[in-house]
Amino acid sequence: MDVMIDTNIIISAALFPNERMNCFLEALSQKHRLFLCSYSLNELERVVRRKWKERLIHIDLFLQKLQYTLIYTPSVNILDVDIIIRDETDYPILASAIIADVDVFITGDKDFSELILERPEILTITEFERKYL
């Protein structure tokens, strides 16, 4: 199964690792294909640089160890769908997941959970663990 994770998941895993997150990522990488989008990686750097600049090295080390496929996020809206997201800055991430045709998008952002989409399935880590791990 193709799975994309949101920026908030990457931040949690890289900067605030714990046993649960480590087990989750290990199981995810063993059983599924992980995708990250270029927009999330850029957002990740911006957020960490602004809030935890001294921890940027942790992000680099984390991403070097993580096995994933990079999805290019288009700079313009190329989707022919009418999706309304409260936080417009989340749209490029969702567009990347749709374009890449991933099966599941994992996020902790409640704005995504309010969307009703056929694909990708939008789940929290807990929901994904219960259903697919």
Strand adjacency order, main sheet: 3-2-1-4-5
Overall number of strands: 5
Radius of gyration based on Cα positions: 14 Å
**Level-1 CATH class name:** Alpha Beta
Number of structural units classed as domains? 1
Question: What is the rounded distance between the termini?
Answer: 11 Å
How many helix segments? 7
Q: List low-pLDDT spans.
A: none
Mean pLDDT across all amino acids: 92
Q: What string, H for helix and E for strand, traces the elements in order?
A: EHHEHHEHEHEH
Topology-level CATH name: Rossmann fold
Rough shape?
globular
The CATH homologous superfamily is named 5'-nuclease
CATH architecture: 3-Layer(aba) Sandwich
Strand content: 5-15%
Proportion of helical residues? 40-55%
Largest sheet: 5 strands, parallel
Structural class determined from secondary elements: alpha/beta
